[in-house]
Amino acid sequence: KLKMSQSDIIKIKPFYYIHVLDGNSNITRLEVGPQNFYKQDHENVVSGKEPQRMVMLNPFTYVEIRNPVMRDKKNNLVNDKYGQIKLRNSDSEIRTSLEYPEPFPLYPGESVAEMDKILTIPRDCAARLECLRNFHDEEAKKDRIAGDEWLIFGPCLYIPKIEVKLEKVMKPEVIKSNQALKIRARRDCKDSKGEERKAGDYWLIRDRGFYLPAIDEDVIEKLNAHIITESFAIHLRANEGFTDIYGNERKYDEEWLISSDISTSHIIDVHEDFVQDVPITILSSDEYCYINDPVNEKGVNQLGKKILRCGPCSFFVRPGESIDGGIRRVYILTEHEALLLKAIENFVEEDGTERLAGDRWMVNGPARYTPVVTVEIIEKRNSIAMDKNEGIYVRNIRTGSIRSIKGDTYMLKAHEELWEMQLDSMVQTLLGIPETQKTNRLVSYHCPFNAAVQVYDYKNKTSRVVFGPDIVTLEPDEVFTVSYLSGGKPKKPGVFKTLHINIGPDFFSDIFTVATSDHARLRLQLSYNWHFDIDKTDVKSASKIFNVRDFIGDCCTQVASRVRGAVAAITFENFHKYSARTIRTSIFGLDENGKVNNRFLFKQNNLCLTNVDIKLVEPEDPKTYESLKKSVTLAIEITTNIQEAEAHRAVQKQEQEALEVLKKQKIEDDVAAESDKKKLLNIIAECDSIKSSGQAIADAKARADALKITYEAEVLNAELKAKAEKIRQDSEISYQRMKQELELGYDDKCKEIELNEKKILADIESTKFDSIIAAIGQDTIVDIANSGPELQAKLLESLGLSGYLMTDSNNPINLFSTAKGLIAGAGGLGEN
Hints:
Blueprint: E1 9-12, E2 16-22, E3 27-32, E4 35-38, E5 43-45, E6 52-53, E7 61-66, E8 92-96, E9 111-117, E10 119-121, E11 126-131, E12 135-137, E13 142-144, E14 149-153, E15 156-158, E16 164-170, E17 173-175, E18 179-185, E19 189-190, E20 196-197, E21 202-205, E22 209-211, E23 217-224, E24 226-227, E25 232-238, E26 242-243, E27 249-250, E28 255-258, E29 265-266, E30 272-279, E31 281-283, E32 287-292, E33 306-310, E34 313-315, E35 322-329, E36 331-333, E37 337-343, E38 347-348, E39 354-355, E40 360-364, E41 367-369, E42 375-382, E43 391-396, E44 402-406, E45 416-418, H1 425-431, E46 444-447, E47 451-457, E48 462-467, E49 470-473, E50 478-480, E51 483-487, E52 492-498, E53 500-502, E54 506-515, E55 521-532, H2 539-543, H3 551-567, H4 572-577, H5 579-588, E56 600-602, E57 607-619, H6 622-776, H7 778-799, H8 815-831
């Protein structure tokens, strides 16, 4: 025999296996341990180099086997005609630890796909299953068709099947208080209450506790209830017709409120849409509001209607309603306030007053007013307080007439309104009124002193002149006259704009050019004194002031014209010599005596010139100006030299006179100085003698005072020491006295405390004894007292003794007394 090699022997342990391919028959078989397998030359181990371990299932586990072997009804393996074990190719098989408690091998072709624990379905849970292929369900005893779905409820073990797919394990939904589950039907079915449901239907499960949806139900979401308080309500809308949980029929798109009067909590139904939370509207006693489109008793909005709600009250604004203008305050009017009202439609007030649409009336304070819905409040008016120089413009809307009211507190009537006066922009600027400011107040102007203001009434076509100082006020049909006056040098028209004109006396200046007969051009600057020669009491005379719009420009023009005419008739030399007379004559003219007049009157406006001052006369031609300047300079130089010589001579004369006076004064001062020096020497000698004697006296006096002070100090020191010693001794005596008194008081207090303590302890002992006696009782004490003799008597009686005596050698006994006692005791017993 051929000796086999070691590699041809395969040792298969228990619970191990190998697959052996027979090369002759091309059949693979299973070899299971424990054994020593001798491999032949035509055999090959195809399961691996090492034996494979059998599949061992732990308790409550399963394994999925792919391509399992085929078995007959008796669970025997099925072989084909060649002896190869048949497999269910592309199929799988579930093997559990319940069916295969022992390890098992895999036949050739089988493989492990998955191993897992058997699913435990807890209590109140369910497994959702789906059929993958047709089969007969032994547990339910019914045929399952591919696509079927069903539930397996716990508690139980779910053993997987190839024909069934586990979709998920469904846990119950916990429905708490104020919660609900929103359920949708996957297909036509009956719900948990037996109601028919169509596919796609939604409904709510409101019952508290666990809820496990059926196979045809899907849980969409868990809804929480809206908590409804007294301050909030919820606004709902129906998305289809239905009957709500409170038994009310709701139509499509109907809206309503759920308040605390209906329920304290509400879960939104599937046929309801939540719109918003509606807060409660609270009106105090001083508030009111208008409700548009109010809801009637049937819950229908009355479109176009408006109602009034007055406080104090609280309510919810229902769907379709709205608060017009928000919550308003009741009008509380003082005695200086009023309301202007207008009727929107015909109505009758509470006091029976009939109001027609469009009527206007006022409610005057003091009052409290709440406007009804048929009344429109145009405005709230206040009494207008005015000083005696203040006022307002009032227009009557019925007649259109305008009037001014001054100097009193005034309340506009119902048919009156403030009228705004339209002022010219220039007038408004001169009055200092901003463009944005209303001019319904009385327009006034402070006319300054010695001035005049003209006011024109365009309605009556008359004018009036007011002289200052005064306050000028405009009536509704009056306007101010604006004066445009010339200004500057030379004069330019329209420089000054003013409402008043000074009536003088005053002055103004002007610069203009003239030409002499020899064509010399000169520039003159003249100032004129003027005033208006008018009678303030005469209206016609006063109104002449404003006949010339620019009296300054007109006056300067006429005066310049007169001067030019006069200067043109004379030469420059003559004008240079007689310029003042020429100018005054041309302006004022000559009287019958050939003298210059003292005034010139403009008859158009009674402007009177009283004087003219020539400020400046200078040639306009440069050459003439230089020649005139040189001649003037030469004349000034000559005059200056003359004045300088005269001043020099006067200074020399004054200097000589002053020198003589100075010498004389020096001699007199020397004499006085010698005399004063003599007096000084005498005074010095006298002072030296006084000083020497005074020094000796002062030293002696100082020494005496020092000794006196020393002795007085010693005496005072002795007195103070004596007083200090006395005070110390007095203090020591007081201290000892107080100490003794305190010690005596302390001893008395200690003795008193000790006495009180003993007294209290005695009282406590007495009270204790009384309490013990009271607690024990009189009969008990008597029994205790008698218990000793009675016990002795009974003891003697039991021993048969009439008496006894016990002693030792250390205690002597008086036998006579003892015997006497015994005899007496015996006698007593005998008597008894």
